[in-house]
Design brief:
- By secondary structure, the protein is α+β, with helices and mostly antiparallel strands.
- The protein has one domain: Cyclic phosphodiesterase (Cyclic Phosphodiesterase, Chain: A), CATH 3.90.1140.
- Helices cover about 30% and strands about 35% of the residues.
- It contains 4 helices and 7 strands.
- Strands 1, 2, 3, 4, 5, 6 and 7 form a 7-stranded antiparallel sheet that branches.
- A hairpin with a 7-residue loop joins strand 6 and strand 7.
- Helix 2 packs across helix 3.
- It is globular and about 40 Å long.
- The N and C termini lie far apart (about 35 Å).
Length: about 160
C-alpha cells in the first residue's frame, strides 16, 4: 500500500478544474478524479506521511500555468504544466526532509488519465483553453492505487490563510 500527498485547489478553482476533468472523462470514457498537484508519492507509511504534512507551515499558494502537455505516461496523459516556484519547492523540500525517499517532483495538474493515440491527445490538448493561474488551499494524503476508483482520502488539512 502506498500513499501520495496532493495539493488541492481552493473552492473556485476546484470547481473549474473538476469540470474540465469530468467533461473529458465523460467524452472519452476515462475515470473521474479530483484535480490536484501531486507533491510526493510512493510513501509506504501513512504515519510518516501525516508527520511530513504536519511539518508544513505553508499558507494558500497561487500557481502559474506554463503550458499544456501530453505524454505516453498514463498519469500524465494530458496535463497543465505548472511553474515550479519557491513556494512549491519549499513544500516539496519540507516533505522530503521528513520522508527521505526520492520523488521526482514535476508540478502539473492532470486533466485525463487514459491511454490514447498521439493524434487524439494532440486534438484534445489543442482544444483546451485553460486559465493562467490557480489557487491551492488544501493538502490531502490519499491511499494510492493503479485503479482511480480505489483512491481514498486518508487525511485532509488546510494550508491556512494567504
Amino acid at each position: 500500500m502506498t500513499y501520495s500527498i496532493w495539493l488541492v485547489p481552493s473552492y473556485g478553482d476546484k470547481k473549474y478544474l473538476n469540470k474540465i476533468v469530468n467533461d473529458l472523462a465523460k467524452k472519452y470514457g476515462a475515470p473521474k478524479f479530483s484535480a490536484h498537484i501531486t507533491v510526493y508519492s510512493g510513501i509506504t507509511s501513512l504515519r510518516k506521511a501525516k508527520a511530513a504534512v504536519q511539518n508544513l507551515d505553508s499558507c494558500k499558494i497561487k500557481v502559474c500555468k506554463t503550458g499544456i502537455g501530453q505524454s505516453n505516461y498514463l498519469w500524465k496523459t494530458i496535463f497543465v504544466k505548472i511553474k515550479k516556484d519557491k513556494n512549491l519547492g519549499k513544500i516539496h523540500k519540507t516533505l522530503h526532509a521528513v520522508l527521505g525517499t526520492k520523488y521526482d517532483f514535476v508540478p502539473h495538474i492532470s486533466l485525463i488519465y487514459k491511454n490514447m493515440d498521439y493524434s487524439t491527445k494532440r486534438k484534445i490538448k489543442n482544444s483546451l483553453k485553460i486559465k493562467k493561474s490557480f489557487s491551492f488551499g488544501g493538502i490531502v494524503i490519499i491511499r494510492s492505487s493503479k485503479c482511480v476508483k480505489d483512491w481514498k482520502i486518508m487525511y485532509k488539512a488546510s494550508l491556512g490563510a494567504a
